[in-house]
Q: What sequence folds into this?
């Protein structure tokens, strides 16, 4: 059963893999999927790979913090305010059912719905970024563990 599973993993194409954001040349994706860190015992190579992952992870964290999070906060605020201010146009339509007031109400509701849809889209982007950041952190943790194993292996067999 495990041989079948490994065969299917190796058979997986590049397009079936998770895409990392802002990785134009797919360098991070190739490092993430193609490099088997458990077969590398050279600590310098592991350190170089770890540094690349750390650099990319910090870039994603900064991008999410300064570009995506402010947009999400702004849109959530607009949607939140829109829910409470939608009472006023509804009361105006109820008190004065003119076509102008009804048109304002419909326009207001359409605008609020557009903001809510855009907010949900940004929240999905934010979740995707957070998933990729978590994947990178897991890979960095695995590299650190492999570095410790290789150091212990070196101490055990090559030291006096």
A:
């Amino acid at each position: 059963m495990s041989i079948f599973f490994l065969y299917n993993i190796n058979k997986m194409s590049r397009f079936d893999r998770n895409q990392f954001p802002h990785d134009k040349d797919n360098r991070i994706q190739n490092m993430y999927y193609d490099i088997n860190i458990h077969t590398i015992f050279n600590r310098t190579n592991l350190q170089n790979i770890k540094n690349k992952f750390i650099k990319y992870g910090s870039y994603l964290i900064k991008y999410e913090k300064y570009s995506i999070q402010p947009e999400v906060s702004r849109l959530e605020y607009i949607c939140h305010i829109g829910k409470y201010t939608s009472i006023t146009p509804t009361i105006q339509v109820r008190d004065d059912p003119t076509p102008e007031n009804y048109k304002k109400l419909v326009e207001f509701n359409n605008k609020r719905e557009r903001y809510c849809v855009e907010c949900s889209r940004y929240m999905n982007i934010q979740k995707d970024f957070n998933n990729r950041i978590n994947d990178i952190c897991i890979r960095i943790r695995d590299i650190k563990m492999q570095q410790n194993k290789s150091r212990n292996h070196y101490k055990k067999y090559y030291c006096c």
